[in-house]
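Record now logged underneath.
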Amino acid sequence: MMQSTFPPYLSLAIWLPIVFGVLLLAIGRESNKGLVRWLALVGAIVSLLPTIPLIQHFDNAAHGMQFVELTPWIGRFNIMYALGVDGLSLWFVPLTAFITIIVVISAWEVIQERVSQYMAAFLILSGLMIGVFTATDGLLFYFFFEATLIPMYIIIGIWGGENRVYASFKFFLYTFFGSLLTLVAIIYLYNAAGGSFDILKWHQLPLSMGEQTLIFFAFLAAFAVKVPMFPVHTWLPDVHVEAPTGGSAVLAAIMLKLGAYGFLRFSLPITPDASKEYAGLIIVLSLIAVVYIGLVALVQKDMKKLVAYSSIAHMGFVTLGFFMFNDMSVQGGIVQMISHGFVSGAMFLCIGVLYDRMHSRQIADYGGVINTMPRFAAFMVLFSMANAGLPATSGFVGEFMVILGSVQFNFVTGILAATALILGAAYSLWMVKRVIFGAVGNAHVAELTDLNGREFFMLGVLALATLYMGLYPAPFTDTMQTSVADLLQHVAAGKLPQ
């Protein structure tokens, strides 16, 4: 892995938001709320800047990692500060920085207590999540992967709802205990590789089927909880309901992707034979998530819970795509991850806009919002349609690619996967009908005020991203083709004697 000739864009993307976050903590005075908000926004925008050259200078035809940074970290144990991106991880770096800007804007007037700590938590979280997507050293990956729990735990526990302490503990315990087996697997791979934490070297290790099976399930314990897959998904609706709007947006848009990305970077390339052996299990669990959780979403009375369950169903599409091992389905899974970042984040922000005005997330408390908030209603309908997978929105592209890949894999699997479009339309349209359309539901709805300039900008940018990706997905798919083809070739070859 050759050192990059480019400036350290990846390090800047990781550490700039963390430095700004620490600076905000140092200011930490409630009397300086205005300064804190503007400094947080500047920090978020500055942190996005080094991610733009990654897209501009990324070579779609190149194999392996790009923008590589290699520096000895803990020399005695051969632990490296090693960073790099390929087509599997590229888009998640700017996506994380972009969503962080939106979250800072969303909290501008809403958060009035501990403003500096709130903004700092999100900036630090942004840097840590980018670290997960860019780390090519196993221990560095694990450090970033686990460190993301701390800011999110604080965000939920301090700024969350009534049951925030319960939700934050549930979030931490589920995700932390799931990751402990991964640490064991990482240490095992370190020894098997002759004392190296280089993830790319782990990809080439000649592991037996027994070793691969144990390592596969060790990784599954962490990544399945993080996605989350059925049946370890129960923490997500509780956390979404209690988390502040920004926390829900980041959790859905970025944090769930850390687990799915782990399958691409660890499970498939390190344990290819075990991945093929147990693909049927993952496919069945993914289809249960797509169909059953979609049905669960249909009966929800709380808007946040409905969107939370729809997130589980959409992430089921991602894991389904990865384990059918064809170009179309794997690319579709990655596209779905990026699209879900835009759409689910936007859905939670829309619910947050309503909650800020009415302090209720119950669908029954609304009705006829379009009469008092027409601009908001337009955005809510657009994002709901994207959530349902309407053509010309980003939500359609990934789901359609996964369904095509499913049909190539097995026709029955394709039919079951396609039911997600029907269920997605059902629960999205049901919510829109009850909340947005019809006569004004009550006096509280009659008093609602439409979007202000800040909210319009925030939702407008996400709407443009959703439509751009839906109408012209080529920039996203072109960057991942080579890396996906290399991954599938590696999985097909396996490590066991043929």
